[in-house]
Amino acid sequence: MTGFVVVTLLSILLQLIACEAFVTCGQRQRNTHLLAAKKKKKSSSKQRQSAAAGKGFGKASSVAITVSPEQEQQQQQQQTVPTLSTYTDSPTHAILIQWLLQNPTTFISPKFTIKESNLGGYGGFSSQDFEDGELIFRIPRVCCVTSDDALSDETVGEIFHLAKQKRVPSYEMLILCGFIAKEYLLSKRIKGNKRSSVIKHWAYLQSIPWKQGELGQDHVIYWSEEKIERMLGGSLAYNDAMLIRKTVDSAIKLLKDVIKPTIQDTNDEEIEAAVKASFVICLSRSFAEEVESDDGAIGIENALLPLLDVLQHSNNPNTSLESYDDYILLRAKGDISGGEELYHCYQEEREDVIPPHKFFTRYGFIPGVRSPVEELLESKSSLFFPKAK
pTM for the full model? Predict the structure, then answer.
């Protein structure tokens, strides 16, 4: 990236800071527990402190490991290697699983399968019984998408370092979204088997929805201004929706100048669509991590964790997540019968943590509500519109 471009982008960053364009999108709710980590410590047998899951800005509880990694390795070696059809009939998810299994430290139980969920889109299921504490899968950190991937990228890493150094509000979300948007646009210009060699996370990126309506995905980021005013005007969700959209609009202005020099045959409309989709993906799928740098400073980073984000949300999950420096583990929380859907708690359902209307503006759904959100808005549901006292 040329010096002129860097200076121009630095000027844009400073303007964004001055006008406070990047607002609450990256702020965490008070008292939420994050997926904690000790950065730079690479002992795979050491559990990261206070491991807890959180989609976007969420939380859940941690469970201590009960079986050593060495014992689990021996157990896994004794198992028959399953075929891809054991895991899923979905071609997209089969490519994802095949890619994950290419890493020798990946383990995915042959009892785990992906299929359509009654809650919409896809979900994880048990094809056979799981015992309490049994390992469902282990995903190595190298397969996850992190801010380190963005910061070390040869084409965009320099400007992302500037955003981090200048402490642009929501910079951790900005660089993750910008990175995957750039990678996605690049993948559309590479054909065949070359994609997997040029784009590290291609198999994962093609498994997640990049357009409104794919896998039933919708979000206020996609809505027109007219629809926002018509559906959300006067509602509890209006201000939060507008803040998120303002953040994304500001990110689009910046990331156009970051992405264009790296993918020269792209256009503003294509970049805008990719950036919007990347924010929807990261808001609804990323996990917030508390990390400690070499100098002892504590910061927050966002990460995308493949396979884990296939699971649907429940406030009473039947799985638990453990976070380590080199991998993440998902275990059965209690005995699980064959055929049951697997659930994970991405965000505790508490009014003082995140009320239902913010569940919608952040994640695109309201837990436990099966009625279409637009019907709730049209009927002036109390979930969105406060009742007069």
Answer: 0.83
